[in-house]
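Quick one before lunch.
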Amino acid sequence: MSLHCSWRDMMREAAGRLQAAGVEGAARDVRLLLAHALGVEPVDVILREMDAVDPVALTDFEAAVQRRLTGEPVSRIRGWREFYGRRFVVTPDVLDPRPETELLVSEGIARLPASGRVLDLGTGSGCIVLSVLAEREDASGVGVDVSEAALAVVRRNAEALGVARRVEFCLGSWERALPEGFDLVLSNPPYIPTGEMRALARDVINHDPHLALTPGEDGLAAYRAILAQAQRIARPGGWIGFEFGMGQGEGVAHLMAEAGLENTVLHDDLAGITRAAFGRRPLQAP
Ligand SMILES: C[S@@+](CC[C@H](N)C(=O)[O-])C[C@H]1O[C@@H](n2cnc3c(N)ncnc32)[C@H](O)[C@@H]1O
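Model of the S-adenosylmethionine complex:
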C-alpha cells in the first residue's frame, strides 16, 4: 500500500489480514497495535486515523501485525496488560492476566477488613495481590509462586505500582508449608484438566507458561493442596477465595466444605459464568 494512505486505510487492511488468519477481535487488536506503534493511548488513535502514514511508525506497526499473525497475544507484543485499571508488565514467564480474574479481586476487597493482610497463591504477574494493595492503602500482603522467573516480574510490577513496601514475595509451593494467619487468601491456580489442554487457543498454548495452565488430571490438584492447609493459611474468620474454570464451581465448593470452610458462596463473572468461590474459616474450631 502507498505511503499516501491514512492510518485508517492501514488499519482496515491489517484487520482483514488478521481476520483471514482466524484472529478473533481483529479490529480491536489492530487499534491497540497502532496505538503501541504511535506511542499513544488506544482512545487517541481516533485523533490520528486520518493522518497520512509515516514510514517509521509504519515499520513498527507492520512488525507488530506480523507478530500478531503468528498468534502472539497483543499484551506480549506491547509488553503490558491493563488489569483492574492499571498496567502490569507481562513476559513469557507469567500468565497473561484475564479480565475475568477482576471478579476475584473485587470480591476479595469486599471481604478484606481494615489493615487486612492478603495472601496470593500463584501470584504470577501479581495482578491479584497488587490490585488489592493498590485499591486499599491500609492493606499489606504476600505473594507466593513456584516460578522464580515470575517473581522477578511481580517485583517489577510492585515497584511500578508504588506498593512494594507493603508486599513480600516468596518462592514456594502449595505442596509445602505456606505462610499462615491471613485475613484473606486469594488464588487463581492452574486449573485446566489434562483432557482440555489440546482444545486451547494457540495464543494460550504457545504463549502462557504451561505451569500456569494445568496441574494435570482433573485440574483440581492445586485446590486440594491449598485446602489441605486451609485451617492454617486463613486466620479464624478469614476468607479463602478461588477462581476456577467453567464447570468446576461445584467441585471446588465441595472441596472447600470438606476442608471445613463455611458460608461458601459462588460468584458469576460479567458473562454469567460461575468463576469464583469464597468460603470462611470458622471463628471457633469445629
Ligand atoms: C493461572 S496462573 C495465575 C497467575 C496470576 N495470579 C493471575 O491470576 O493472572 C497460576 C500461577 O501459579 C503458579 N504455580 C503453579 N504451580 C504452583 C505451585 N505448586 N505452588 C505455587 N505456585 C504455583 C504458576 O507459576 C502461575 O504463576
